[in-house]
Each structure stands twice: as structure tokens, then as C-alpha cells.
Amino acid sequence: MPIDHVVRHGECLLSISDRYGFFPETLWNHADNRELKQQREDPNVLQAGDVVHVPDLTRKEEDKPEKKRHRFRRKGVPGKLRIRLLDNGEPRAHVVYRLIIDGSITEARTDGDGFVEQDLPANASQGELIIDRDDGGTDHYHFNFGTIDPIDTEAGQRQRLHNLGYDTSEHAEALRAFQGDNGLDPSGQADDQTMSKLQEAFGQ
């Protein structure tokens, strides 16, 4: 039967749709989720307390010969991790990294623009990115997937500013610093122009 799923912290549409056996776009484009779609815009950035309508799952039947074994594979929809690594504004191109997602390790190199791009399981919860430095040391970055709050909330703005390297102990001061660095009026207020630029800089 249809249900209204109340979003918990750490969930996004990808993990919710995977839990109930749907493709993300099926839920996102459902008529009963129109208001949520208009409010949030990005299905990967939901807020705890949001409600996602989940319809009945339609059963698909296949005609197959009797008395034979058949294997059916569920189609999974992977998520995508895309991070750009910079050093004083310059891309960290072709550096070796190790990405650990829920215990699974992938080793590769960033591309020429410093990007890390990897598929993620729909239910991935945590990750660690380890970067080899030229001096022989390593840099470590930790992730909790699905935990970013919407841009129009103070929590969401603080998260993005923190990840961009700003001191967020004073929210208005962090906004002023970001605005000054990006040619905006340093009002310390999260106006539409500032939120748009912050989304662009953060990538979400």
C-alpha cells in the first residue's frame, strides 16, 4: 500500500527509492511529490521531516518456460561522488587517491582538472578519501552521505561554508568572508545571489 515516508537525517531520494524498490525519478516525478520537488529542487538535498510519497510497487511478470531455472537481477541505480581537489585555487591533477566507501576500497587518480568521480551504492552512508601528497604524507577527508541540508537553511549554509574552508563559528562573518571572496556585497545576509553562488562553489 502507498505510504508517506518521513525523511530522516542522512537520507536522500536515492537511498529512499532504493529502499522501496523504485527508480529515483519515479518518486521524484510522482504527482504527489510535486510540492516537495518545487520546494527542494535537488533530490539529493532533502531535510529531515520532509515527506516523500511512495506509491504501490507495480509487480512485473515475465513469461518463462516451466521446469527451468531463471535468474532475475534487480536493477540498481548507483549514486555519484564528484569532488574537486584544489591547492591554493589550483587543481590537484593526476594525484593518487584511495576512496573507502563502507569498507570497500577503490584506488585511482584525479583527472586533469582535479576531480574525483566514482559511482556509489545507493545505500552508501560513509566514506573516506585519502590523497597522497608530494612530501610523502597523506590528506584524509571524511564524508557522511546524504547529510547536507537545503541551501535555504542556516545549517545548510554553514555546512557548505565549512566544507569550503570558512570559519563558521559566526555565521554572518562566514557569509561576509565568502561574499568578499566572490565579489558580492559583504552584507552577512544569505540573499538569493549569495545562496546561488554558494551552491555553485560547493557544487550542490
Q: What characteristics describe this protein?
A:
single chain; 204 residues; alpha+beta; Membrane-bound Lytic Murein Transglycosylase D, Chain A; Immunoglobulin-like; 3 domains; 4-stranded antiparallel sheet; two-stranded antiparallel sheet; flat
Textual characterization of the structure:
The chain has 204 residues and is of the alpha+beta class. The protein has 3 domains: 52 residues, LysM domain (Membrane-bound Lytic Murein Transglycosylase D, Chain A), CATH 3.10.350.10; 66 residues, Immunoglobulin-like; 49 residues, no CATH class. Helix content is 25%, strand content 25%. It contains 6 helices and 10 strands. The strands form 4 sheets. A 4-stranded antiparallel beta sheet has the order 7-6-9-10, with no helix packed on it. α4 crosses α6. The longest helix has 11 residues. The radius of gyration is 20 Å and the shape is flat. The mean pLDDT is 85.
What is the highest CATH level, the class of the largest domain? Answer: Mainly Beta
Approximate strand percentage = 15-25%
Mean pLDDT: 85
Instruction: Please give the count of helices.
Output: 6
Record the strand order, biggest sheet: 7-6-9-10
Alpha-carbon Rg, integer: 20 Å
* Helix share, percent: 25-40%
Q: What is the straight-line distance between the termini?
A: 33 Å
Estimate the global geometry from the Cα principal axes. flat
Fold-level CATH name of the largest domain = Immunoglobulin-like
Largest sheet: 4 strands, antiparallel
Low-confidence stretches: none
Structural class computed from helices and strand pairing: alpha+beta
